[in-house]
Amino acid sequence: MSTPRKNKFFATLDTFVTVFGSAASVSAAVEGGRAPKAKHLRNLGINPKDFPSIGH
Q: Hey, which of 15, 36, 39, 45 would disulfide with 29, CB 3.0 to 4.6 Å?
Protein backbone atom coordinates (compact mmCIF):
# COMPACT_ATOMS: atom_id res chain seq x y z
CA MET A 1 0.00 0.00 0.00
CA SER A 2 1.31 3.43 -0.92
CA THR A 3 1.78 6.14 1.64
CA PRO A 4 0.07 9.52 1.13
CA ARG A 5 3.49 11.05 0.46
CA LYS A 6 4.17 8.66 -2.43
CA ASN A 7 0.68 9.22 -3.82
CA LYS A 8 1.24 12.98 -3.81
CA PHE A 9 4.61 12.56 -5.50
CA PHE A 10 3.16 10.41 -8.28
CA ALA A 11 0.19 12.76 -8.74
CA THR A 12 2.59 15.69 -9.06
CA LEU A 13 4.77 13.75 -11.48
CA ASP A 14 1.72 12.84 -13.57
CA THR A 15 0.66 16.49 -13.72
CA PHE A 16 4.15 17.55 -14.79
CA VAL A 17 4.28 14.90 -17.53
CA THR A 18 0.80 15.86 -18.76
CA VAL A 19 1.60 19.58 -18.96
CA PHE A 20 5.04 19.03 -20.51
CA GLY A 21 3.59 16.62 -23.09
CA SER A 22 0.82 19.04 -23.98
CA ALA A 23 3.29 21.90 -24.35
CA ALA A 24 5.43 19.81 -26.69
CA SER A 25 2.38 18.74 -28.70
CA VAL A 26 1.05 22.29 -29.07
CA SER A 27 4.50 23.56 -30.01
CA ALA A 28 4.94 20.89 -32.68
CA ALA A 29 1.49 21.57 -34.12
CA VAL A 30 2.09 25.31 -34.32
CA GLU A 31 5.54 24.86 -35.87
CA GLY A 32 4.02 22.44 -38.40
CA GLY A 33 1.27 24.88 -39.33
CA ARG A 34 -1.48 22.72 -37.80
CA ALA A 35 -4.09 23.49 -35.20
CA PRO A 36 -3.27 21.91 -31.83
CA LYS A 37 -5.74 19.48 -30.26
CA ALA A 38 -8.22 21.07 -27.88
CA LYS A 39 -7.32 18.71 -25.01
CA HIS A 40 -3.70 19.85 -25.11
CA LEU A 41 -4.72 23.51 -25.09
CA ARG A 42 -7.02 22.89 -22.11
CA ASN A 43 -4.18 21.13 -20.25
CA LEU A 44 -2.20 24.36 -20.64
CA GLY A 45 -5.08 26.55 -19.47
CA ILE A 46 -5.84 27.92 -22.94
CA ASN A 47 -9.42 28.11 -24.17
CA PRO A 48 -9.44 26.29 -27.54
CA LYS A 49 -11.93 28.82 -28.93
CA ASP A 50 -9.53 31.68 -28.10
CA PHE A 51 -6.44 30.06 -29.56
CA PRO A 52 -6.85 31.29 -33.16
CA SER A 53 -6.84 34.91 -31.99
CA ILE A 54 -3.62 34.60 -29.93
CA GLY A 55 -0.80 36.60 -31.44
CA HIS A 56 -2.98 38.82 -33.61
A: 36
